[in-house]
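All the exercises in this workshop are built on plain-text protein records. A record pairs a protein's sequence with a compact description of its fold. Read left to right, the backbone structure tokens trace the chain's path through space. Once this layout is familiar, the rest of the handout is easier to follow. Here is such a record, shown just as it appears in the course material:
>
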Amino acid sequence: MIGYLESATERYGAQIHCFCLMSNHYHLLLETPRGNLRQILHHLNTSYTNYFNAKTGRAGHLFQGRYRAILVDKDHYAMELSRYIHLNPVRAHMVRDPLLYPWSSYKDYAGERTGWDWVTTEWILGQISRNEKRARKGYREFIAERSGRAVKDPLEQVVSSAILGSEGFVDWVKEKWVEKRAYHRDIPSLRQLSRWPGLMSI
């Protein structure tokens, strides 16, 4: 799967900020400058499943359910989502320290791995410090703050199963996608927003 993540950045221009591969699903925090989420996820899900099934002689679906795409207000929620993603193996009692889990991007943030330059760490680390060494140290402390405690799921604040953001961000999405009826087929839940009379009051 790692190779498919890397090729998604090369072929489709995906900017992968964070990822965590679990036993039957995975978590991604990514940007799609080309607006091609469907292509990226088809590449990851279908192509990898076909490869895995051919290699192991199995058939059928590999991942649990259809993907859930959520528009995220990067400025307000990217840091918290990155922590939530990187602590997945800890919450699942697979490891006690996220540094011990090789199938996530946490080691790239902590400065413990080289060679995976397709992981885009600059933006999130830049929220801590412009100095790389201080940023990596600060991010490790940011993760450690919640590593041994319950982590609040930031996705609990998602509006209409489709948006995670400030009131201004939700307003922007409403204006751009709902009022103009420019529904995006990759995020069908946006259609539900038209049924909510006052998003600002949610």
Q: What stands out?
A: Residues 42 and 48 are 9 Å apart (CA to CA). Confidence is low (pLDDT under 50) at residues 188-202.
